[in-house]
């Protein structure tokens, strides 16, 4: 998926947790968390509580990279986090409309 700016992001572009994993991954990689936050991307994912749309997207990006590095699909706990991230991103997009 091509990069999508926060300004161009619409709720209908955000997959839900029941979407194919490939679609979730493509969406998550439409934002480069490393470019936006540098080393803080990992810190935010590991220690922070993402609040802004950019932070939420960065954490989604990082978590997708983390699980890709693991080499297997996310476990049940991680799926809950992905579900929360996707829904939180969707809510942030709807709030600004």
Task: Jot down its keywords.
mainly alpha, 97 residues
Explained architecture:
This protein has 97 residues and is mostly helical. It has helices at residues 21-28, 33-37, 40-47, 53-70, 76-96. It has one domain. Helix content is 62%, strand content 0%. The radius of gyration is 12 Å and the shape is globular. The mean pLDDT is 95.
How would you summarize this macromolecular structure in one to three sentences?
This protein is mostly helical and 97 residues long. The chain is 62% helix and 0% strand.
- Count of spatially separate domains: 1
Radius of gyration from CA coordinates: 12 Å
For the sheet with most strands, the description reads:
none
How many alpha or pi helices? 5
Mean pLDDT: 95
> Approximately how much helix is present in the residues?
55-70%
The proportion of residues in beta strands is under 5%
Number-wise, the strands total 0
Query: What separation lies between the terminal Cα atoms?
Result: 23 Å
Q: Catalogue the unreliable spans.
A: none
Return the structural class.
mainly alpha
Which H/E pattern describes the elements? Answer: HHHHH
- Dominant shape: globular
């Amino acid at each position: 998926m091509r990069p999508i700016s926060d300004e161009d992001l619409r709720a209908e572009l955000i997959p839900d947790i029941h979407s194919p994993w490939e679609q979730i991954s493509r969406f998550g990689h439409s934002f480069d968390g490393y470019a936006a936050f540098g080393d803080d991307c990992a810190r935010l994912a590991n220690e922070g509580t993402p609040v802004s749309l950019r932070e939420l997207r960065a954490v989604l990006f990082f978590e997708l990279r983390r699980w890709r590095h693991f080499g297997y699909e996310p476990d049940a706990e991680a799926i809950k986090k992905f579900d929360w991230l996707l829904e939180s991103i969707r809510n942030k997009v709807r709030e600004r409309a």
